[in-house]
Amino acid sequence: MSWFLSSGAQSDWAEALPTICSKPQMSLQACSYLMVNSSQHAPGQRAHVVFQSLSENDTHCLQFSYFLYSRDGHSPGALGVYVRVNGGPLGSAVWNMSGSHGRQWHQAELAVSTFWPNEYQVLFEAVISTDRRGYMGLDDILLFSYPCAKAPHFSRLGDVEVNAGQNATFQCMAAGRASEAEQFLLQRQGGLMVPAASVKHISHRRFLATFQLPEVGRGEQDLYRCVSQAPRGAGVSNFAELIVKEPPTPIAPPQLLRAGSTYLIIQLNTNSIIGDGPIVRKEIEYRMSRGPWAEVHAVSMQTYKLWHLDPDTEYEISVLLTRPGEGGTGKPGPALVSRTKCAEPMKAPKGLAFSEIQSRQLTLQWEPLGYNVTRCHTYTVSLCYRYTVGSSHNQTFRECVKMERGTNRYTIKNLLPYRNIHVRLILANPEGRKEGKEVIFQTDEDVPGGISAESLTFTPLEDMIFLKWEEPLEPNGLITQYEISYQSIESSDPAVNVPGPRRTVSKLRNETYHVFSNLHPGTTYLFSVRARTGKGFGQTALTEITTNISAPSFDYGDMPSPLGESESTITVLLRPAQGRGAPISVYQVIVEEDRARRMKREPGGQDCFPVPLTFDAALARGAVHYFGAELPASSLLEATPFTVGDNQTYRGYWNPPLEPKKAYLIYFQATSHLKGETRLNCIRIARKGRPRLVPDLVPATPLTACCRPFSVELALGRRGWGG
């Protein structure tokens, strides 16, 4: 069965259905079309019309007319449209229609978003229904070089790469009017259709269709495209590839290079893997063979040393490999099972502290000991103490007491009041011993007196404060700790929250100073300092200290490219600076002649321009730079273009045209003022080179005046700079 061309004057079909040839652009005698008489063919038979291959460079629209009619209302069959790309498989129909639709022609459009160098071919198909009654017709297949009015046009669909087991998302942006009957589908090259998960209308003529492919695997890797279907036409995007990568897994376990009592050195052994690369991260996963926990360490070399392991303990070690993207970490590779060696005790008992102090006895406690500390099942703990006796304190009493197994508390009795008791804990096993640091306790002491506020001295900087204090005049015992609390209470920087959180620093008894860092510039802090003995804290000394302001900071990175350039001008983008401790007071644009033998200026605080210099002043002094503009901070709230050499005046600074035969460096400077302090920062944002025909080594000439406007004052509001 095939389509055939029928003339209205010679066909019984045309006589039975004269409305087929009643379209305005045709006469009955000249009318021609493609027709299938369903009654003359078996059910399921197909007729194809293949349109010529198209390789378009711009938006276009394929328009056609169709006819489906049966006198008794039965469906003569189904009309379908297929789009084959680059000679690939035909896939599923992008548009289809069946049923009986009256004795008139209907028009539909096809918006295909496939462009050169790709080509596509449109195939029209007629399939005979089981009813075998009526006619199917096709006419006026036209290609227009403008967008379709009834079918949306899709933007370019990009490839999607995901890791196996993850959800793949295709997002199809389309322009045009979408009807309520519009159906959006994701079509696989092999023919599978997936409905859209959501359709979001960006505007009245632009919408976004989102498609989800859950937990994809290698079997779903294929070409996909977006299709919109409606009775009035269809939109078809380009094919994009779904790339599914398999997360990598090592084939072999890691290799043991060396074992110690607290470490294992291994080689990753990742030369052979299962899955896809590239490998962007390598990790070691290890655990005790009989433990519930596991740790993962990132590794940057082929060998790795696992630290802080328990002695005489068995571990399982595996390697994890990760490729780019979410879900890119593969399963752990085969495990290496290895055991650490035994060793001497790791450390002495820690956490020695008093639980109760009286005038003649001292109750002490310390942290319970675990196997990870003793590193052996047989061990002893001894508590040794000493203190001076006699009125002249020239005699020492010493004693060591062995503790019972599992004990972490002991009371020393028969002590003297208000004396320093030196206590040490010793842990021993057959392989060695560890002695703890000697801790001094004082019997029967009281809280200390307050620290004198006059003894507080400080040196403020921009982001830190050096604070020093003296011991209380009345210590009332042994000072064990100083506690310094501070919080911000006032700031000139609106980005700083005041009052800020209260922070506390603890210092040892012999440390009477501290450097407070990571502070905010231009911010006042309230400091409180107090001392502590074993009985508690004393009174607090208060003082307020204000940090210095900092120079503003810029967000430029590397020197940006100019927005535009002519012989006498260059247009740059001015970005607002960030005040640090004080708001920005003013901005300046500085123009500096780039002379051949002159050392290049590196932007920074020490090489900025603290003294304003107009063009005329620079000309008179023979200087190589001048201020081309001064801008108020309120005029630069966002990034704004500015033209250097526009022959205008900004707050008293003339911005003259640049000389075409000279090279210039353009600097942008921000200044902050607060309470007598001034901080500035500048950055080079552009360079305007001389023409290539001018030799590099041209004798430097001083700045010359040219092209001064008749009126040098400019209504700055017209440029958006204020003034």
TrEMBL record:
Pfam families: fn3, Fn3_PTPRU, MAM. It comes from the Eukaryota. GO terms for molecular function: protein tyrosine phosphatase activity. Its main location: membrane. Gene3D superfamilies: 2.60.120.200, Immunoglobulins. Keywords: Disulfide bond, Glycoprotein, Hydrolase, Immunoglobulin domain, Membrane, Protein phosphatase, Receptor, Repeat, Signal, Transmembrane, Transmembrane helix. The keyword Chaperone does not apply. It comes from Monodelphis domestica (Gray short-tailed opossum). GO terms for cellular component: membrane. This is protein-tyrosine-phosphatase. Residues 250-345, 348-446, 447-553 form the Fibronectin type-III domain. It catalyses: O-phospho-L-tyrosyl-[protein] + H2O = L-tyrosyl-[protein] + phosphate. It is found in: Membrane. Its EC number is 3.1.3.48.
